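User: What would this chain look like folded?
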Amino acid sequence: MKPVLAIVAAGVVACAFAVPAAAQDLAKTAGKDAKVVLDNTRVRVIELNMAPGDRTGMHSHGDNIVVFVSGGEAEQTMADGTTKAMSRKPGEVVWSGPVTHDTLNKGKTPVRTLVIELKDNGK
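Assistant: Here's the prediction, encoded as structure tokens.
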């Protein structure tokens, strides 16, 4: 009986990790709010237009740069469930290392950003 329970437990764990992994791409989790405007071997650029109350959905990035075309107020929920408030100004540029998070536009105006995801260039 114990080997069967171990197999079932392993299957449950595998399924729990498979679902989040499949839903980690910002271009997919943000739906209509995200548009890939450039994708090559070095970078991927995603234009993100979020109306007040919109969320990106939980997603992951490797090293990335975010350019805030318009400013606004947001709340990020990290993979561990912690949250942090953000206030960004138009033209602000932010660097981030690898991260998994969801972002909510908490402001009263739309927010437009360019998310520049850096790719490993093999060097």
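The helical segments are 2-22, 26-29. If you want, I can go into more detail on any region.
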